């Protein structure tokens, strides 16, 4: 779970920094970091799961560093399995879809608010 902790810490510091600035796009910029991190995690977990499928007869292992940060020995269980790798990939996919959706919702809302406030200054 160090990966999740690292992403949360980056989001908190980014949001605090943007809050101190006069920035109209602070939520979408914060969620952009989350989108990039979730896409990287999803790609890594997909690659890890697909490589484990081909090695099922020989034994499975974590195939990249990002997947190793997410699937630790203590966080997901003591025994690695194809089901565990599939579960991690599925959860990562849901988080990625949710973060992309929230990013676009915040971006559209902030664009609309920015256009309204810019129009009222004229």
Secondary structure topology:
Blueprint: H1 2-20, H2 26-54, H3 65-70, H4 82-120
Helix pairs in contact: 1-2, 2-4
Q: Work out the helix count.
A: 4
Radius of gyration: 19 Å
The beta-strand count equals: 0
Largest sheet: none
Structural class: mainly alpha
Give the termini separation: 50 Å
Order of helices and strands: HHHH
Q: Which percent range fits the helix content?
A: over 70%
The stretches of 5 or more residues where confidence is low (pLDDT under 50) are: none
**Average of per-residue pLDDT values:** 77
Q: How would you sum up the global shape?
A: elongated
Strand content: under 5%
Question: Can you give a write-up of this model?
Answer:
It is a single chain. This protein has helices spanning 2-20, 26-54, 65-70, 82-120. It is mainly alpha-helical and 122 residues long. α1 (2-20) runs antiparallel to α2. The termini are far apart.
Give the structure's gist in a few sentences.
With 122 residues, the protein is mainly alpha-helical.
């Amino acid at each position: 779970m160090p990966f999740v902790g690292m992403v949360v810490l980056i989001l908190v510091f980014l949001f605090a920094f943007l809050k101190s600035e006069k920035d109209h796009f602070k939520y979408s910029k914060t969620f952009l970091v989350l989108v990039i991190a979730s896409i990287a995690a999803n790609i890594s977990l997909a690659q890890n799961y697909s490589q484990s499928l081909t090695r099922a007869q020989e034994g499975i292992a974590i195939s990249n560093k990002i997947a190793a940060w997410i699937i630790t020995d203590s966080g997901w269980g003591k025994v690695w399995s194809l089901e565990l790798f599939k579960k991690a990939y599925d959860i990562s996919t849901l988080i990625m879809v949710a973060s992309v959706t929230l990013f676009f919702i915040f971006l559209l809302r902030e664009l609309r608010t920015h256009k309204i406030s810019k129009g009222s200054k004229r």
